[in-house]
Amino acid sequence: MMKTHTMLSCLFLVLLAMIDVSCVSGDEDRPVRITYPYVAPTARTAAILDGLPKVHVGMSGAEVRSRLGAPDEVNPTYNSIHVKAAKKIGYSFVYVIQRKQEAGSVVEKDEKLVRVHFGLDDRVVNIISVGLKGQTDAVE
Predict the structure, then answer these.
(1) For the segment 38-50, what is each residue's pLDDT rounded down to a tens digit?
(2) For residue 91, what are the contacts with CB-CB under 8 A and spacing of at least 6?
């Protein structure tokens, strides 16, 4: 029994070390926590806006990342706002260009961003831009 406990403790420590290393590895392919108020650096904004016309319905997540870079957020998408009845139907990549605060009304957040929605098959189902002049509000 003691051997099993010791082995489990060692396994836990190894897994914890792996998690810790991945969080500080500088991996640019994973979402990064942003602080508010937030305005993307000029180069990041340009990369998102230049890459946006190259993103199309049917693309994979890897293809979107190759055009827009790593998303700022990856969020699950559900078929209902009712938690008890909700079924996951996909996920979205969110590319934030501006957000004044993390939570609040649309006016309070004053967001400029792009949301790329994927189905469970990892293919783009639609692309929505919010607050971006000259950009399509929704591409189906």
Answers:
(1) 999 999 999 999 9
(2) 74, 75, 76, 77, 117, 118
Residues across the chain: 140
* Mean pLDDT, residues 71-90 taken together: 87
3-state secondary structure of 92: strand
SS3 call for 107: helix
Q: What whole-number distance in Å separates Cα of residue 71 and Cα of residue 114?
A: 10
Contacts of range 98-102, beta carbons closer than 8 Å, 24 or more positions apart: 98/38, 98/39, 98/40, 98/131, 99/34, 99/36, 99/37, 99/38, 100/36, 100/37, 100/38, 101/36, 101/37, 102/36
pLDDT in tens, 52-72: 999 999 999 999 999 999 999
